[in-house]
Amino acid sequence: MISTILLAAGQSKRMNTENKLVKKIKGIPLIKCALNNILKSSVNEIVIVLGYQSEIIEKLIDKNDKIKFVFNSNFETGMASSIRKGVENLSKKTDAFFISLGDMPSINYDTYDQLIECKKNQKIIVPMFKGQKGNPVLFPKSFEKIMLSIQGDCGAKKILENNKKQVLNIEINDPGIIKDIDVLDDFNNLTKN
């Protein structure tokens, strides 16, 4: 079973008080754009970690048997607490899990499937576009315990640095893996395309 932890708990501090996950791209909220791409893939379970404005975000998302919502009461401490909350709520049947970001709406669903096909040898699978590392990263189940020890707002970067021999970089023809939305200009550039 392949799971995804979709991080949707952040406060969008660089967006001038607007929650970027509810802003629309071609009429669809940003979080739904990211989620819809995962739903089209062969991922079996999606654990959406909510925090800031959780009720608003949850209402935007249609019911689906694949989706499980969890609330991170410590969302203000940074991304690591949301990753830990997601890992704690993965299905017992999970073989591997993605860490996906709610502010990355342009990842092609086929990218998820390509990364799943590369899953082997208990390696961490990192997508790359033209040599640049991107998201989502696929972790084998064996990394669950290590994930529960991360702290702060650095995500899982430290785990990748400390386990370089366990990382398999896969070149993917999908510029969406390196495009996240942090500031209003990112949003404006995306809506122009």
Overview in brief:
With about 190 residues, this protein is an alpha/beta fold. Helix content is about 30%, strand content about 25%. The protein contains seven helices and ten strands.
Mind explaining what this structure looks like?
With about 190 residues, the protein is of the alpha/beta class. Strand 2 (about 25) and strand 3 form a beta hairpin. It is built from seven helices and ten strands. The strands form three sheets. Strands 5-4-1-6-9 form a five-stranded mixed sheet, with helices on both faces. The chain has a three-stranded mixed sheet with strand order 8-7-10, with no helix packed on it.
Count of runs of 4 or more consecutive helical residues? 7
User: How many beta strands in the DSSP annotation?
Assistant: 10
Secondary-structure element series = EEEHEHEHEHEEEHHEH
Q: Work out the radius of gyration.
A: 15 Å
Helix and strand content put the structural class at alpha/beta
Distance between the termini: 35 Å
Order of adjacent strands in the largest pleated sheet: 5-4-1-6-9
Q: Give the amount of beta strand, in percent.
A: 15-25%
Arithmetic mean of pLDDT: 88
Task: Give a short account of the largest sheet.
Answer: 5 strands, mixed
Roughly how much helix do the residues carry, as a percent range? 25-40%
Key traits:
193 residues; alpha/beta; three-stranded mixed β-sheet; 7 helices; 10 strands; 28% helix
List the helices and strands and how they pair.
Blueprint: E1 2-8, E2 24-25, E3 28-29, H1 30-39, E4 45-50, H2 54-60, E5 67-71, H3 79-88, E6 96-101, H4 109-117, E7 124-129, E8 132-133, E9 137-140, H5 144-147, H6 157-162, E10 167-171, H7 184-192
